[in-house]
């Protein structure tokens, strides 16, 4: 195979074959026996109290993390749970460029400018020479790498993990139920 | 002699040849392409596969001043993989969906355009791509996604002849630039994902008559047939989807081949599966096989060996070097095909030693499994089709490396004509580092990596070295970058707005040097202000 330019196999399939796979994936998600039923109203309260400072839903909330308005419609239940319990396990995908093979991930970047100022944030995009950051104050920083004193990337998410002793299984189910309700 | 004086001499020689031989590209000109560095007459720039330009007007001292001179937009979507050719001021290239065009190489203004009308049910495995043309005499040649070979008039783009090579409905296609020899147009077929039977064809450049065909999967009674289990040879793959190189000293054509089919499932095709993943030394007069070297036996990871082989002469040694998709850098004696060395230039986990010939040998646990397990490099390889470059000034071999590991799984899949035939699935491994890329400079004599220039993510850009001491590369983020070829110092870059899936080249017109590269849906030419 020469080059598919995708993040896995799927080349050479007809549209019909691709849709068959999509249908299958949707079917197993809907049939998932572990799909929890929670209290979306309580979940909304929890979300507004601790998640919305960084995440936006339907135009309200912060900008540091991904917009979660439709996340429950495109991710599996286990993936949603993992994203809360251990957000560094799989960094979320950000900007996708039409001709680029890989999407930008929500990597954590820490830089020190020539004046000694340290800036930490999430990479909105990056190439060999520049980086575009959303810093923790949610300001966009446009930086040229060769003008920085230091540049460090980390796959440790800026989002803290929420283990069960910090967020109970019941409360997590409620938050996911809320995400489900807004994604429909 | 100062570099400036040398530049003028090179350009004066270039101007002489330009006036002397305007219009017709003869076999003699192709043989001596190094004598006219203002032109880029064949896919890799010369028959040796070097992708090295003798131009030095743009060099390490002034590269920082490079500017975009023109941009040509194909207005097509999909990967733009062409390497243009330039003949006496006219640039010939191909684009997505089997278009071809001729441009004024000074301005990028089109002279003619050819757009093939493709059937709606073609079966390209990996995009509606084409990597370029060949030129010979007054014609331009290309292979098409519906498995035709077409000759166009170089002055008008009119079709001179158009022949059918194979049935596209069964998965046969052409994506690579043909190679022009004396009176012959040679090209290899694509379609290793469809259970084709691979071949390399030679056509009469004037008439389009097929002169010979070499099947890369031997039939009954032919040597190598015994390396296939049962009837598996009939759908054995081994496509030849890149452009070969030619050694005039021994009159040998060197062509490389791709994966056996199904690509990731060895069950049902027990044996070495010759001549998949091999280098073939062919007699260009009749297509007979002189010798072969197989890089990956019985491949189960889709590690096509189609990377451009590069001829290197070192003293009385006549070598052929290839940075293979399986992660090893091989050096062969190109007279005999004997392996001289094989060294890893990228992360490899599949080999646990070497066989009696010195070939890296697959470990017991390297095969794909039903549940899947991680192997490095991944299915897209430690490198892929993007061209390497050899710089005779630094004696370094430059290659674009992709660091990635994949989880390979496998399951039975019946063959059905014209349908994808993988017997497998692969996906990024959680257990490995995130994918990344680099340009690596390899000492061809020792096989050791001298330096690397890291890319933020893996790139599909090839590399070009020049007499100006420069190495050009592109990246997935859309940058075109000039490095010092002696070390990895970046000297210049330009943001083109689209990822690079192509290999750069250089040419000169009216005494001015240009460096060209495709990115996104556009072809760019750069030069000094």
Please give a quick description of this structure.
The complex is a heterodimer of chains A (184) and B (529). With 184 residues, chain A is α+β, with helices and mostly antiparallel strands.
Roughly what is the average pLDDT of chain A, rounded to an integer?
A: 86
What percent of residues of chain A adopt helix (DSSP H or I)? 25-40%
From the spread of the alpha carbons, the general shape of chain A counts as globular
- What's the end-to-end separation of chain B, in Å? 24 Å
Indicate the radius of gyration of chain A in whole angstroms.
19 Å
Strand order of the largest sheet of chain A: 6-5-4-3-7
Strand portion of chain B:
35-45%
Q: How many H/I helical runs of chain B? A: 2
Question: How would you describe what is shown here?
Answer:
The complex is a heterodimer of chains A (184) and B (529). Chain A has 184 residues and is of the alpha+beta class. Chain A has helices at residues 15-30, 40-50, 77-85, 169-183, and strands at residues 56-57, 60-61, 108-113, 118-126, 130-135, 140-144, 148-154. In chain A, a hairpin with a 3-residue loop joins β4 and β5 (130-135). In chain A, α2 (40-50) crosses α4 (169-183). Residues 4-12 of chain A have low confidence and may be disordered. Chain B is mainly beta and 529 residues long. Chain B contains 2 helices and 38 strands. In chain B, the strands form 10 sheets. Chain B has a 5-stranded mixed sheet, with no helix packed on it. In chain B, β33 (470-474) and β34 (479-484) form a beta hairpin. The longest helix of chain B is centred in the N-terminal third of the chain and has 18 residues, at 3-20. Chain B starts with a helix and ends with a strand. Chain A binds chain B through residues 1-5, 7-9, 11-13, 17, 90, 97-102, 105, 126-129, 155, and chain B through 79, 123, 125-127, 175, 190, 192-194, 241, 258-259, 263, 302, 304, 306, 379-380, 384-385, 420, 422, 424-428, 430, 434-435, 455-458, 460, 475-479, 481, 490, 493, 495, 498-499, 501, 519-520.
